[in-house]
Amino acid sequence: MKENKNIFQTWLEILVISTRLGLTSFGGPIAHLGYFHEEYIRRRKWMDEKSYADLVALCQFLPGPASSQVGIGIGVMRGGVIGGIISFLGFTLPSVIALIIFASLLHTFGIENAGWISGLKIVAVVVVAHAVLGMAKKLTPDLQRKTIALFALVVTLLWQTAYSQIGVILFAGVVGFLLYRQQTDTDKAKVTYFPISRRFGYFCLTLFFGLLILLPILRQLTTVQWIAMFDSFYRSGALVFGGGHVVLPLLEQQFVPTGWLTEQQFLAGYGAAQAVPGPLFTFAAYIGAVINGWQGGLFATFAIFLPAFLLILGTLPFWDALRSNPKIKGALLGINASVVGILISALYNPIWTSSIHTAKDFALAALLFSMLVHWKLPPWIIVVTGALGGMLISYI
Asked: In total, how many domains does the chain have?
């Protein structure tokens, strides 16, 4: 009985924290990783730095929304499969509801260009910078790993494709294996009970590939609109590397030429998706709502995120075993260093380039950074201050 009470308390804790993050996490997937790092790793210590970096590296490999998969993974490690589902719902539903209700209004009133949105983008700069500093100190302590991080930074800045990230991580893994295969890693990731069996992992991976193959066939055999929608959203979520910004043009190709929504409706939703917190994949909720009301919005959300769920639940059991294997610890040291470089690259573009345009923007960023790093104020205060600061700058 006491054990059941404890797990319910854990699930409630996951729900409260993930929902707060879902309401305040602006700035795209890399910014979300910064928010997760601040809340789950720095403040609550649900995972150690190395385990978090390992999880981020895994989700960079997988197609789909990397930040959502990291959030699901943290929830799973904390509270099992149900914990992962709760973590996903808390982080995702706020933006889903906002897009279903307000997408057309955002376009009508032009709120996506409001000053407070600009302020929230500056908050994202600060959060990511803080996360990068913390991870760099931990994961690039020697010259070799600093060099790997620099290589990852330069390559991903100059060749900004989803495949360049994957290539950099693979290359860093090989270099790390060669450099550190004889080295004993004294800063080990904490080994804890892993709540998913390999059998369940096999089931999830089988279901992922089964749906990917069967849905297009089923779509051709029927004229049911819901099946066609499910197929389009599922394939978009299953085959996209690089996160939300990459899935937006793919969704346009799926739905605008078919006449399910107009170019104007698509652009209205695009603006709305930029103006709400949470993962950009929730743009699917807007498209689904345009096509079939709020039921379509929820259905589209389920369809586009299902591949991410199946992949992370299917690979986590094997990833945990791999990262504990002494033979590949050197590779993980290199991979973790490359993740630091990739995050610095993303900090510059798109986060810095889309947020810091004037000296006033930089001044606000410096203030928010000091509040977070030196004064150690809670992240929600940083978010509110950033929004107010953005509004004030727009009037100056």
From this structure: 1
